[in-house]
Design brief:
2 copies of one chain form a homodimer. Chain A is an alpha/beta fold and about 300 residues long. Helix content of chain A is about 45%, strand content about 10%. The first copy, chain A, has 13 helices and 8 strands. Chain A has helices spanning about 25-35, 55-70, 85-100, 115-130, 145, 155-165, 175-185, 200-205, 215-230, 235-250, 255-265, 285-295, 300-305; strands at about 10, 40-45, 80, 105, 140, 165-170, 190-195, 210-215. An 8-stranded parallel β-sheet of chain A has the order 2-1-8-7-6-5-4-3. The longest helix of chain A has 15 residues, at about 115-130. Chain A is globular. Chains A and B meet through α2, α3 and α4 of A and α2, α3 and α4 of B.
C-alpha cells in the first residue's frame, strides 16, 4: 500500500448487479472511473453501500481484481474487507494489500454480540499478523447501527500501541459527530473519515481527513468544493448546500436511494437491482425522491449530467 | 434429505479448533460420534455454538465433508448454512442437501437491520430455488439476540404457502417460550425445536419436536429422559433437574462454558480454543463453573464420564 495518507472525498462505491445478483464487473469498473471523473478523490468499494456482506468472498475478490486490471488507481481505493470469519477477513485484506490499495476498511466481527475488548483485539491482531504486510493501512469501520459492535477509544489505543501506523484511521458511520471528534482529540493525526458528507466540514476543521459516504456516489460534485475550500469563507455555505441533499437521500434506505438516482442519471434501469434482503425503492418512492432532489437547485446539474 | 421428520434431543455441535484456529476435522468427527453415543438423537453442527459464522465457507464445507466421510449419519444432522451472502448460503445449503442431511438450519441475512418482509422472503426464496432440491428440509433459525433479524409468523406463513414442506421447521433460540408456542399454534405440525433444553418439555407438550441446544453437548444424558418420558408422570421432575444445569451453564458465555466443560470431561485442553471475538473462560471462571456443576448431583456422572 502507498503513502501519503488517503484524504478527501471518497465514495462508498455502489455495486452494479446483474439480474441474477452477480456483481457486474464491467459496469463496476466503469462506475469507479466515472466517480473519479465526477468529483471523487478516492473510492471505497465493498463496504455497506457496496453490499459487500451480501457477496461471497469469491465475488468480492473478483471485483478487486477487475478494478486493478481495469486501471482503477488502487492507491486511491480503501477497500472493504470485513467478515465475521477470520479466515475470510484475512484472505480479503491480504488481497487488497497485495493489489496496492490505499487501505483496507475492516469491520469488527459482527455476529456475536457484546464481544470483549480482548476478543476484538485478538481478531484485528490475527488479521494484521496473518496478512503480514508492513505497508498495510488499516481503517477501522465504526458503524454500530449495522455491526452492533462499536470501535472504542481503548480498542484503538491498544491497536495503535501494538501496530503503530498500520492502524491508519477509522470510518465513523455512527452519525454521531461527537464520536469522530473524540477520536480526533484522542489520536491527533488519525485518519478519520466521516461516514456522511454531512460532517465533512466539521471533520476537516477538527483534523479529520475527509468523508467516505454512500451518497457521494451522487453528491461528490458538491462535496469536493467543501473539501477544497474548507479553510475559506465559503465553506459553511457549501456544506449547507451539500447537507440539504444528503438529508433528502438519507430519508430513504441509502443503498436503494443511491441506486435509484444512478438509474435515473444514467438511464440504465439495471442499477435498480439490490441483493436481498435489500430491496429497490418502489416506483412511487423513486418518483418522490426524484421530485425532492429536483427541488434542490444545486442538484439539477448533477441530475442532468451525462453518465 | 430424508424422511421422517427430525425429532428429539439435538446438540448444537461445538467445533474443536487447532491452536491456529482451524477446525480440527478428526476431533470434530469424533465429537459427533461421541454425542450420538451420549444421549443425542441428532446433531446440529455449524450453528452459533459451532462458531460457524467465524469460519469461512471452505472451512465449513470441509467439516460437512469430514462428517459424511467419517460415518456420521447425515440424516440425523441439521446443519447450519447461514450467511449474509446469498451465494454462500446457497453453496452451503446445496452441499448439505447433497450430503443427505436431515435438514439445513438457515439464519436470515444478519448485516442489514430492519430488512423488509419482502426482502427476507426474497432471500429465502432465492436459496430454495437455487438449491433446487425437492428433498430439502429447511429449518428457519430464529435468534433475534444475535441475528438482530427475527423470523416472524407472517414470513413463515408466506414461505410455507410458496414452498410447502420444504419449510420443515424452526429453531427458536429467542429464549421466549411464548414465541415457540405461537409458531406451534399457528402452524400445527411445524417442526419447532427449542433453542434451549429449558423449554424441551413445554415444547413437546405444545406439539414441538425437541430441542437443539448448545448445552446438550454436555446435558444430553439428562435431556434424553425428558424426551423419552414426556408423556409420563416423571417428566416434570426430569425437566426440573435438566433446567437446573442449563441455568448454571447459561450464566456464562455459552460457547466458552461448553468448551470449558468438554476440556474438563475429556482432559483435552485444546477444547478451550475459540475463534475471536469469542474468548475462553478464564481459569477462575472455569474453576467456578466446575464447582457449580459439581454441586448438582445430576451432573456428577456426566462429569466423570469417560471421553
Amino acid at each position: 500500500m502507498t503513502e501519503p495518507q488517503s484524504r478527501g472525498v471518497y465514495a462508498a462505491v455502489l455495486t452494479p448487479l446483474t439480474e441474477s445478483f452477480e456483481p457486474d464487473l464491467a459496469r463496476f469498473v466503469a462506475h469507479c472511473h466515472w466517480l473519479l471523473a465526477n468529483g471523487c478523490d478516492g473510492l471505497a468499494p465493498l463496504g455497506t453501500t457496496g453490499e459487500a456482506n451480501s457477496l461471497s468472498v469469491a465475488q468480492r475478490l473478483a471485483m478487486v481484481e477487475a478494478a486493478a486490471r481495469g486501471g482503477v488507481p488502487m492507491a486511491k481505493c480503501i477497500v472493504g474487507t470485513g467478515s465475521c470469519a477470520l479466515a475470510d477477513a484475512v484472505t480479503m485484506t491480504r488481497s487488497v494489500a497485495a493489489a496496492g490499495a490505499g487501505g483496507a476498511l475492516l469491520l469488527p466481527p459482527f455476529y456475536y454480540k457484546n464481544p470483549s475488548e480482548d476478543g476484538l483485539f485478538a481478531f484485528f491482531s490475527e488479521v494484521i499478523q496473518r496478512v503480514g504486510d508492513p505497508a498495510l493501512k488499516l481503517y477501522l469501520y465504526h458503524f454500530p447501527q449495522l455491526s452492533t459492535v462499536p470501535i472504542t477509544l481503548p480498542l484503538v489505543a491498544r491497536l495503535k500501541r501494538a501496530y503503530g501506523d498500520t492502524i491508519a484511521g477509522l470510518k465513523d458511520s455512527s452519525g454521531d459527530w461527537e464520536c469522530s471528534a473524540a477520536f480526533l482529540r484522542e489520536f491527533p493525526g488519525f485518519g478519520v473519515f466521516s461516514g456522511s458528507e454531512e460532517f465533512l466540514l466539521p471533520n476537516l476543521r477538527a483534523g479529520g481527513v475527509g468523508c467516505i459516504s454512500a451518497s457521494t456516489n451522487v453528491t461528490a460534485p458538491l462535496a469536493r468544493p467543501v473539501y477544497l475550500a474548507w479553510r475559506g469563507n465559503e465553506a459553511d455555505g457549501l456544506q449547507h448546500s451539500l447537507t440539504a441533499v444528503r438529508l433528502v437521500l438519507q430519508s430513504y434506505p441509502l443503498q436503494a436511494a443511491l441506486k435509484e438516482v444512478m438509474a435515473r442519471v444514467t438511464g440504465d434501469r439495471s442499477w435498480r437491482v439490490l441483493l436481498p434482503p435489500n430491496r429497490p425503492l418502489t416506483a412511487a418512492e423513486g418518483a418522490a425522491l426524484a421530485d425532492r432532489l429536483e427541488a434542490l437547485p444545486q442538484m439539477r446539474p448533477i441530475l442532468r449530467r451525462a453518465a
